[in-house]
Structures are given as C-alpha cells and as structure tokens.
Design a protein that fits this description.
With 95 residues, this protein is mainly β. It has 1 helix and 7 strands, in the order ββββββαβ. Strands 6-5-4-3-7 form a 5-stranded antiparallel beta sheet. The two termini are 19 Å apart.
C-alpha cells in the first residue's frame, strides 16, 4: 500500500492482511512497535482509519484516523522527541 502525507512525502508499507510475514513494522514516537492490519472506513463518517496491532504484551489492536497515524509529532507538545513522524517505518520482516 501507499500513503501520501500532508507534506507530500510518500510512504509505502505492507499490511498484515496483505502479507502477515512481511508486514511493515512502525515505531511509535513513545516507544512501542506496531503493524498495520488494514486501512478501513469509519462506518459513521466514511473517513479512512488505520487498524493496527501492537507488537507487545497481548498484541492489542487500535484504530486511528489515517491522517493522524501518518502525521508529524507535535513538537510543541513533545519538544524533546527526535522522531519526525508519530509512526515511522522501521523495517520489513524478512522470511
């Protein structure tokens, strides 16, 4: 899959539904790793959301608006964070 951020940068990634063994790992700026399960539409608003799964503990699942998932870190709220984006691609799992 591919997503074009608001700053026009492009990010390519593989979801769990596309290929569980090669799903792209994303690192959240607060420390945990996640894999995107799929991109879905909110039933009420029809807005796109990311359904993603934590790669820790009991593998919790979360949803977040797609624009927020791929947004930049709020440097006013988190001035000491060095990561540029909320979720950044780390690596793709190898066979």
């Amino acid at each position: 899959m591919e997503y074009i951020r608001k700053d026009n940068s492009k990010i390519d990634f593989t979801t769990i539904l596309e290929n569980p063994q090669k799903a792209t790992i994303f690192h959240h700026f607060k420390g945990n790793n996640y894999k995107i399960i799929t991109i879905a539409k909110d039933a009420n608003t029809q807005n796109e959301v990311v359904i993603y799964q934590g790669q820790y503990d009991n593998l919790p699942c979360w949803s977040r608006a797609i624009d927020e998932f791929f947004s930049k870190v709020d440097k006013e709220k988190y001035p000491n964070i060095t990561q540029e984006y909320r979720f950044e691609k780390t690596k793709e799992k190898e066979d």
